[in-house]
Amino acid sequence: MGGYSRRSVLQLGGIAAVGTALPASGARASAEHTWPESFALLRRQWRDVTAAPFRSRPDRLGAKAAGYLDTMAPARTSLWPGLAFPSFDDTPERLQTMARAYAMAGTGLTGDASLAQAVATGIDHYRRRVYTAGADPVGNWWNWQIGVPKRLLDAAVLIAPHLTEARSRALRDAVDHFVPERLLADYSGNSTGANRVDLCTVRLLLAILRGDPVKATQAVSALSPVFSYVSEGDGFYRDGSFIQHTSIPYQGGYGMVLLSGVACLFAVLRGSPWEVTSRVVLDSVERSFAPFVHDGFCMDLVNGRGIGRSAYGDHRRGDAIGSAVLLLSESASATEGARWRGMVKGWALRSARTDGRFAELLDDDTVPALPEPEGHRLLPMSARAVHRRRAWCAGLSMASHRIGHYEHGNGENERGWHTGSGMLYWWAEGHGEQYSDSFWQTVDPYRLPGTTVSTRRLPDGAGRGWGDTCPPARWVGGATDGWYATVGQHLYGLESTMEAFKSWFFLDDAVVCMGAGITARDGVPVETVVDNRRTDAHLTLEAGLAHLEGHGGYVLPTGADLRTLREHRSGGSASRGYVTLWLDHGVDPRSADYVYLLMPGATLERTRARAADPLWARVLANTADRQGVHVPSLGLTAVNFWNGGAVGGLTASGPCAVLVREGGDGTATLTVSDPRCDLSELTVTWDRPVAEVLGSHPSLTGSATGRGFTLSFARPADLSGGSATVTVRLG
């Protein structure tokens, strides 16, 4: 180690470029520690961080490890009977579990030399027969570059004193072979987003095992691209979107892995010469992840092909995100950290099921549990929206020219064809398991709630794999003032001729859903699925309405013929009851349309009252040119202009979304967006007397008040699909 100077090592790796470096603490570490002391610190902190998920029940970890130790029987083709090599998942995971039981206090096996020796033997046995330098990396690249080396190195670092130099060197050579430094040289391909964090973690563990400061610096420096916003491809976007595999919103899968990995690295590197942080990552907690966690589970609309892997997977992902947020809170400001701990405690308290990892937090009376936030979050760059009120929550999943209809790959999610066709998820109080309890294993994939689809039969895995199923639609997104929203999707069916214009107007106790221009030439019926609830609840049907007891109500102001079906569906070992409500647009419709109100949590009486009040929400337009609604009681007018034109006192020079809210204090807000992200200029006129502009937006280049109000925007495409809000005083 004596041949390295700290200055040369840090300069070599360009560590100051990684996010936001902390040179003060890094300098203190440099002054206070030798290289061996720095690596000893990393090993201790790695041990502490990896033990965190098991602190509430270390005895369980110990019992599992003891079972593995008792049954371990090294043979030519396996380490455990029944787990024939390569056993990429199970064998390395068992060795990792045993190593953690050795390193963690309270497991009953803490510091057990025989356990550590067994792990060392197992690592070398697996390395010689499977993970050996020069072997042909057949199958999924991830196993060879991330899954296997990350677990083996984790185990090796935890039991390092019991790993001989020869075995350690052989493992390091194998990892170097399959995970060479050049994988971090270019931010592309499989070395982006969450994969980049995992690859950097592998290279850092390799450096820790070697005690090599140069390789540690290179590993940490290679995180730098993850800490920057992107405008295309994989990574974090300024609107809160997180994309992986080029076109898939992935906070619940790869994003969860990235957040967990970065939180771990921040904690492990704290106080060392490599300490780093990132404002982009810290901001992502509330900007990118929290919007998609509801009552402790992570919504499936940001989990790509992983949605159907297992029942209650959304709750496990929510727990993992919560754990990452707790760990990351130690790297945040005191105010942020306190808020995040309260947020996670609220998730845990409201969760329908959790794995018990938050027991210590729940017992901490100094941390107040925060309630679910209210408001609307629109993430246009990933074609997603989330709407929250005190007693209900909704999430919307769309597809666009940049976001795929769905992702399939590795044999997973091969019938998720229509999840991007305007699927509207919603939860009222007590419905946290609606899409968790074997929903994806049993639901009719042609009748996902909220979607408009051609019933043309599709093969499993229709469309190209790994999310390459983007339709040509550019108008996908909308406008929101943070409380209400107008959202729209120009929909092209997956591998069909179906085309439609769909709009959603998110309000206080309802979502007004509209469709127009529904056209197809597939020779089969086209349907709009009003809902498909996993329930055996009583269904009430009356003129102009439907109501599911304990769930909510549906109002059909045009008196459309609502079709219904009650059935039990099976998938795997599960069988679940469903109530399906849909509108049949007929075979090969030509410009069909629909309007209905979804009222989550509404009683039958409240649903009847809304159905009896046709003027509560007045439809201003529902065509392939414009869709809009006016709600007098809210002072709200909202229009999706698929093309320029005039409706409801609003005129637009081009395609856009406009949301107007009149307050009771003589003021109003106008929120405008360019969902297509391609306008060079836009003019919006409101036929309403306006006295003065009280608050503006940088993209607003001009306004004219008087008997009418005109707004002029230059390059509204620079909003990246976001919204510009202008506040005025009415005349």
Automatic annotation (TrEMBL):
Keywords: Lyase, Signal. Residues 47-345 form the Polysaccharide lyase 8 N-terminal alpha-helical domain. It comes from the Bacteria. InterPro entries: Chondroitin_lyas, Gal_mutarotase_sf_dom, GH-type_carb-bd, Lyase_8, Lyase_8-like_C, Lyase_8_alpha_N, Lyase_8_C, Lyase_8_central_dom. Residues 618-682 form the Polysaccharide lyase family 8 C-terminal domain. Residues 380-602 form the Polysaccharide lyase family 8 central domain. Gene3D superfamilies: 2.70.98.10, Chondroitin AC/alginate lyase, Polysaccharide lyase family 8-like, C-terminal. Pfam families: Lyase_8, Lyase_8_C, Lyase_8_N. GO terms for molecular function: lyase activity. The keyword Nucleus does not apply. Belongs to the polysaccharide lyase 8 family. PANTHER family: HYALURONATE LYASE (PTHR38481). This is Polysaccharide lyase 8 family protein. It comes from Nonomuraea recticatena.
